[in-house]
RNA sequence: GCGCCCGUAGCUCAAUCGGAUAGAGCAUCGGCCUUCUAAGCCGAGGGUUGCAGGUUCGAUUCCUGCCGGGCGUGCCA
């Protein structure tokens, strides 16, 4: 049950009754503890529209009480403060215990495509892929959890000019008798070596350009080399996904090249069926009024280049077409950097005109800011200075191992390693997810891998405290009345009951930091409760253990929705 | 030039889409481990929310103008 929605319904019903008009009660969680548990803010607005005194209106609303499970009180200019009765809270907690969804009401199931991670296979995954991969994976997990039908779309870049020099380099290595598999182990170095050759050696550059043509014309030898490179590169990224607990599987990959055969069709459909295509300077373009470039000139969406090649606009349109027609998606979410905003706007606009996006579908760009260095400058994409994602992950695990060894030296090596992995990976993901996704991200080892405060380890640690209690308690059933009396118990209980609200707010704009904030508050309230209220051996041990149990279930589930694991001790 | 985004405590970030006295963490300072894991808890200091106007009972939030920063702006992705 969503208490906020319950209160909203109840009070809005009453407000409509006394005002005769359809005013919402606007119920929100109380901002300060002295204001109770929730507050209704809609009375002031309603009173203004009715030209009435807000406090008078509030008085009517408050006195219009039948048997309500909450107390109301007028405050300030016309707020209504709402305090839930402890019986109500206890009953709601009881109901929650048997609910595998922890209070969430499943919405109507939709088919949702999430386009995320989508690395360029010509490069090794680097820190820039952290955001799309972590955010996308979390959104997928949350949407799936509440019952939607998810398609993970890993739209990897496996086509285009950058493969020319890679293939030429592969060819050259084979000719000189070097082991390809050895060289491909470090893709980043491989790419750098190839691009260095491209710059330095004119013959090589010529060969590379040749390879692009050969690749695009489907030359069998060339395709064979290409396939070898791609499968090696995919293997690399799957290792990163597995290490980093990302749910993307090989089968989630639908690469750019998968749309190759559709590209001429897209061009043809845009031209003949929709008359959208215009030739301009030799390129086939779609001009839409809403896009203006420099000097107010019309800005084209280039579908086919003057040399006959297809830019990613074409591929993205083909992908939209596929997602609509074949996948029949209700919703498509693109977890892509903010710098692609204009591009995606164009894709969506052209796709709508072409009927690749239907009126009842929602295509949405979930943008995120860039990864910056400490000095605020941008991580460059082609100078080879990018930090490999796998290195970040490994360093996090190392740091976590050092910390757990210090904090809990008595654990066995294998236990420490297991904990270090869970804590290290959790820290990186949480550092990313706990921030508003739309702002830029400053990459800082120390900050990212600090394990204090509002971090994954804090939540994971709270969880282990609870698990430790249950290990000590040695009980196998938790049957008994829930009795909450202490302030710390009430506040914790209320937060427990707000899990559905947290999930819903998170999904309003797909902001994982809302869920992070909720889990952090939950853990904080638990730790306060833990300090203030004795649990084992106390007069209401069972009731308190029930609170502990619910807290741990939510932390575990909530972290899982963020792609973060828990351990039993740390 | 034009379009979009951002500017909140020394630092990193919140503020549930207009609500009450702008909150956390880090850092600084002080207290709490012979009792359930101190990766914890309790407390203190720290703010003209870039600036100036406007809208209204009420603005970090909406509007206008400035200042500062970023990204994008026809054949890379």
From TrEMBL:
It is found in: Cytoplasm. GO terms for cellular component: cytoplasm. Its EC number is 6.1.1.19. GO terms for molecular function: arginine-tRNA ligase activity; ATP binding. PROSITE patterns: AA_TRNA_LIGASE_I (PS00178). Residues 1-84 form the Arginyl tRNA synthetase N-terminal domain. CDD domains: Anticodon_Ia_Arg (cd07956), ArgRS_core (cd00671). InterPro entries: aa-tRNA-synth_I_CS, Arg-tRNA-ligase, Arg-tRNA-synth_N, Arg-tRNA-synth_N_sf, ArgRS_core, DALR_anticod-bd, Rossmann-like_a/b/a_fold, tRNAsynth_Ia_anticodon-bd. It is an enzyme of class 6 (ligase). Its main location: cytoplasm. A motif ('HIGH' region) lies at residues 119-129. The keyword Aminoacyl-tRNA synthetase applies. It holds the Pfam family Arg_tRNA_synt_N. It catalyses: tRNA(Arg) + L-arginine + ATP = L-arginyl-tRNA(Arg) + AMP + diphosphate. Keywords: Aminoacyl-tRNA synthetase, ATP-binding, Cytoplasm, Ligase, Nucleotide-binding, Protein biosynthesis. Signal peptide: none annotated. Residues 459-570 form the DALR anticodon binding domain. GO terms for biological process: arginyl-tRNA aminoacylation. Belongs to the class-I aminoacyl-tRNA synthetase family. HAMAP family: Arg_tRNA_synth. Monomer. This is Arginine--tRNA ligase. It comes from OM182 bacterium.
């Amino acid at each position: 049950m969503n208490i906020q929605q319950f209160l909203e319904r109840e009070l809005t019903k009453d407000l409509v009754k006394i005002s005769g008009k359809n005013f919402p009660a606007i119920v929100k969680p109380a901002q300060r503890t002295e204001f109770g548990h929730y507050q209704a803010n809609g009375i002031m607005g309603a009173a203004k529209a009715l030209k009435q005194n807000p406090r008078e209106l509030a008085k009517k609303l408050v006195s219009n009480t039948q048997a309500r499970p909450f107390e109301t009180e007028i405050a300030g200019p016309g707020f209504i403060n709402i305090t839930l009765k402890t019986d109500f809270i206890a009953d709601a907690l009881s109901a929650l215990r048997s609910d595998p969804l922890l209070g969430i009401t499943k919405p109507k199931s939709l088919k949702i495509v999430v386009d995320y991670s989508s690395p360029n296979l010509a490069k090794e995954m680097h820190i820039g892929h952290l955001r799309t991969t972590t955010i996308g994976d979390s959104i997928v997990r949350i949407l799936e959890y509440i019952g939607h039908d998810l398609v993970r779309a890993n739209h990897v870049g496996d086509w285009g000019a950058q493969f020319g020099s890679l293939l030429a380099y592969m060819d050259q290595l084979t000719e000189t008798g070097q082991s390809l598999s050895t060289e491909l182990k470090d893709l980043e170095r491989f790419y750098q070596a190839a691009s260095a050759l491209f710059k330095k050696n004119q013959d090589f550059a010529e060969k590379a350009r040749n390879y692009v043509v050969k690749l695009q014309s489907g030359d069998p030898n060339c395709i064979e080399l290409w396939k070898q490179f791609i499968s090696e590169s995919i293997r690399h990224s799957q290792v990163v996904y597995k290490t980093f607990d990302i749910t993307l599987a090989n089968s989630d990959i639908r690469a750019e090249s998968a749309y190759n055969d559709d590209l001429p069709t897209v061009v043809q459909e845009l031209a003949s069926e929709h008359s959208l295509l215009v030739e301009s300077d030799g390129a086939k373009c779609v001009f839409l009024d809403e896009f203006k470039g420099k000097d107010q000139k019309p800005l084209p969406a280039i579908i086919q280049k003057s040399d006959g090649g297809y830019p990613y606009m074409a591929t993205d349109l083909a992908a939209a077409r596929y997602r609509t027609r074949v996948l029949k998606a209700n919703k498509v979410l693109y977890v892509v950097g903010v710098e692609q905003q204009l591009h995606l706007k164009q894709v969506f606009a052209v796709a709508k005109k072409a009927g690749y996006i239907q009126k009842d579908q929602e295509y949405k760009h979930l943008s995120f800011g860039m990864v910056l260095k400490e000095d605020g400058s941008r991580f460059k994409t082609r100078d080879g200075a990018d930090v490999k994602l796998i290195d970040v992950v490994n360093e996090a695990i190392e740091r976590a191992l050092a910390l757990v060894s210090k904090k809990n030296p008595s654990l066995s090596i294998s236990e420490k390693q297991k904990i270090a992995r869970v804590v290290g990976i959790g820290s990186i993901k949480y550092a990313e997810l706990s921030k508003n996704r739309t702002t830029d991200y400053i990459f800082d080892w120390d900050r990212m891998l600090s394990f204090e405060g509002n971090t994954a380890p804090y939540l994971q640690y709270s969880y282990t405290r609870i698990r430790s209690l249950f290990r000590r308690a040695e009980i196998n059933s938790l049957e008994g009345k829930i009795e909450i009396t202490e302030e710390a118990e009430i506040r914790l209980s209320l937060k427990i009951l707000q899990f559905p609200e947290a999930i819903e707010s998170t999904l309003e704009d797909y902001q994982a930091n809302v869920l992070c904030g909720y889990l952090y508050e939950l853990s904080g309230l638990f730790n306060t409760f833990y300090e203030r209220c004795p649990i084992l051996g106390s007069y209401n041990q069972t009731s308190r253990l029930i609170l502990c149990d619910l807290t741990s279930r939510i932390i575990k589930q909530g972290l899982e929705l963020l792609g973060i694991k828990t351990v039993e001790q740390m």
